[in-house]
Amino acid sequence: MRSYGSSEIAYAVANNSWLIILFHRADETAACCAPISVDHTLIQGAVHYLVQGHVSVVTNNEGMIIENRDAQATAGLGLHRQSDMKH
Q: How far apart are CA 14 and CA 12, in angstroms?
């Protein structure tokens, strides 16, 4: 089984940096899709690692707002950098 990115997640947490995780397809068996598909247990492993480590998870859009890089974000949302977020 392939790694679910625990070392990448640990590095991002230790360095207070962002990590974007993208699973393109899950459990696809068709010939066209199998090479880029991941087994659902890989996704579950990543989720388990994130939950057990109390890692803050946000969507791409939420991350852009946190970093104040979304021109459409409403001012005064009270969002903070990941390092300031309470678990």
A: 6
For the chain, domain boundaries: 6-84
> What string of H, E and C letters represents the secondary structure of the chain?
CCCCCHHHHHHHHHCCCCCCCCCCEECCCCCCCHHHEECHHHHHHHHHHHHHCCCCCCCHHHHHHHCCCCCCCCCCCCCCCHHHCCC
Q: What is the pTM of this model?
A: 0.65
pLDDT digits (tens, 9 = 90+) for 30-63: 888 888 888 898 889 889 999 999 999 998 888 8
Q: What distance in Å separates the CA atoms of residue 87 and residue 62, rounded to the nearest whole number?
A: 16
